[in-house]
């Protein structure tokens, strides 16, 4: 990719693996998680490897109803990328909520603290922005309540599923949502009127309404089915060419922020090098042999 284009568009190192925000069937102990992610300790997260190239990160702070506090933000962002650094190595992440509300509760006051507050807000924003920037696709699977920062979190994910019992709401605590909801939802939902209504009234949206508004693409009967289908999607994505999957994400995000002519020019520039991958010949051969992508030994990026 010509250097002149790189400052204007997302680079491969800036974007996302298949991930889900879900309820786990089994959990990895914190000690095991820390072994998987050296140098990180977790107070509000639990981590487990579900299968090859699928890493689950569970939002786990039940006594606070998964309240979003300082202990939550750091491991996801972290030095060197935190959880996302491990995603680069394993291929996929599942973010999982443990059945209760997770919401924004931090804040400061006074103009004298403005610079520090601005810095903290930017750090909070980056916690969710890294999900969008990660090279791999991320699947968010939600059950129960998704409130405040929970909406910010899932809006940064690539695919969103929910269970029938899920509901979504912005919080009414006297502040402007500042870590992604107001920036993502107008593009995700496509209706300024609906986004304005949700932001101004903090209207509570149930699963059918959320699906009809395009915030989620699928609604499942219960959390068990939700988890199963999200993991199936993650596994399907993980079996495909990383060159194709990650390149597709980069170009989708480019199209998100740029007009069609510029996006077409970008994908042409992108593919002038990426079409030289051996993954294409492997995929064609497998198709001719009537096999599936899971039968191709694609090397991971």
Automatic annotation (TrEMBL):
| SUPFAM superfamilies in the record | ClpP/crotonase
Q: Secretion signal: which residues?
A: none
Q: Name one Pfam family in it.
A: ECH_1
Keywords attached to this Swiss-Prot or TrEMBL record, sorted alphabetically, are: Fatty acid metabolism, Isomerase, Lipid metabolism
Quick one: a GO biological-process term for this protein?
fatty acid beta-oxidation
Q: Does the keyword Oxidoreductase apply?
A: no
Q: Name one GO cellular component term.
A: mitochondrion
The Swiss-Prot or TrEMBL record describes its family as follows: Belongs to the enoyl-CoA hydratase/isomerase family.
Protein name (record) = Enoyl-CoA hydratase 1
């Amino acid at each position: 990719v010509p250097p002149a284009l790189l400052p204007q568009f997302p680079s491969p190192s800036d974007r996302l693996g298949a991930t889900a925000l879900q309820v786990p069937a089994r959990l990895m102990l914190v000690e095991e998680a820390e072994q998987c992610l050296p140098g990180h300790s977790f107070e509000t997260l639990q981590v487990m490897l579900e299968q090859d190239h699928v890493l689950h990160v569970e939002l786990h702070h039940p006594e606070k109803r998964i309240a979003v506090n300082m202990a939550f933000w750091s491991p996801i962002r972290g030095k060197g990328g935190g959880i996302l650094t491990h995603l680069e190595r394993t291929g996929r992440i599942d973010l999982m909520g443990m059945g209760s509300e997770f919401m924004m509760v931090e804040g400061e006051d006074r103009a004298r603290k403005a610079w520090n507050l601005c810095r903290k807000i930017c750090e909070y924003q980056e916690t969710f922005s890294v999900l969008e920037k990660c090279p791999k696709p991320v699947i968010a699977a939600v059950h129960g309540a998704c409130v405040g920062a929970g909406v910010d979190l899932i809006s940064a994910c690539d695919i969103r599923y929910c269970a029938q019992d899920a509901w979504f709401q912005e919080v009414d605590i006297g502040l402007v949502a500042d870590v992604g909801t107001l920036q993502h939802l107008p593009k995700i939902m496509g209706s300024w009127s609906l986004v304005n209504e949700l932001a101004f009234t903090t209207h509570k949206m149930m699963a059918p309404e959320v699906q009809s508004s395009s915030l989620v693409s699928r609604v499942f009967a219960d959390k068990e089915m939700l988890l199963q289908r999200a993991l199936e999607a993650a596994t399907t994505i993980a079996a495909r060419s990383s060159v194709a999957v990650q390149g597709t994400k980069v170009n989708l995000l480019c199209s998100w922020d740029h007009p069609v002519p510029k996006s077409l020019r970008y994908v042409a520039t992108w593919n002038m090098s990426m079409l030289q991958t051996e993954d294409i010949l492997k995929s064609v051969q497998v198709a001719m042999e009537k096999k599936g992508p899971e039968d191709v030994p694609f090397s991971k990026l």
